[in-house]
Amino acid sequence: MAATTHHHLSHASSLPKTLNHPLKQNPFSQLPVLSLRASKNLFRRQSLSLRAVLSQNPAKTLNATFQHCFTKSPDGFLYCEDTKVHPYVATGNKNSKFGIRNEKLQWFLDAVKAHPNELKLVGAHCHLGSTITKVDIFRDAAVLMVNYIDEIRAQGFEVDYLNIGGGLGIDYYHSGAVLPTPRDLIDTVRELVLSRNLNLVIEPGRSLIANTCCLVNRVTGVKTNGTKNFIVIDGSMAELIRPSLYDAYQHIELVSPTPPDAEVSTFDVVGPVCESADFLGKERELPTPAKGTGLVVHDAGAYCMSMASTYNLKMRPPEYWVEEDGSVTRIRHGETFEDHIRFFEGL
Ligand SMILES: Cc1ncc(COP(=O)(O)O)c(C=O)c1O
To answer: Domain Orn/DAP/Arg decarboxylase 2 C-terminal, which positions (predicted)?
Structure first.
């Protein structure tokens, strides 16, 4: 497992407690499907191929019943009602920038037909959104997609791949919720995929790696303004933007021992960046920490370092690999001001 850290905490041995998802081998090798990487190779091999990305629309689907988070609107589109899906991570909606609208399917197929030497349609791809907690909707989507594929095949295309995307959620709240795994996703669509003799591609990201990492911080102070208590830390929205961007919950724990008589209060956990949006947690019940206390933000293995920035001249932190025995190895250097300045030299 890896940890992104500002300082090497001497309490690292307490970290593995909730970090229970070590990736000792490539997880894709355990999945009986083509990985994203494999599909890239595929496209490299078949240099004339095209990834067809089709939006879902039940208007074209016969006998489909949708009982889960998606509902069908009067204009025939799917709307996701799962309140856990923030609008910024919902991708399959009517006005989304992604994919190709169903009424453009024929236009799209005609365009492919018009370029037989340049384009080869090999599959259909959809991605429903992120932090999805039920796999049933993937079955709903697969029903739509195989019906599209039937339609596409009926026009003479040899379509071999269905890519059902990613987007499985994880237990960000650490409530003990058992959420579907990539295996559950495969099992949900297996029969349908086999019934059309298709190869299945899935693209789980977060559900494979999110809980392998945490962002390690130090408390720089505690303050009260108005009626709010704040724990101020050295980490910020620059290193982990999900709370600011999506109002996302990420579990927070103090990792240094606090005195047994430390008062428990409700805090917003905030960084030093000059934005009111710079928070990593809101309304958290925590013992009042002393300056220098270690504080971890869990589940930073996906969409943390990859989205990190140098906003407010906060250099990106180093990354460490933590073995199960607690030993720690640095796997990425922290950025320095000199690194940053280098981009402006010799111009
Ligand atoms: C097309 C596509 N596939 C897969 C993913 C991975 O999603 P997640 O990490 O939530 O599984 C994304 C994320 O935005 C995506 O856009």
So the answer is: 195-301
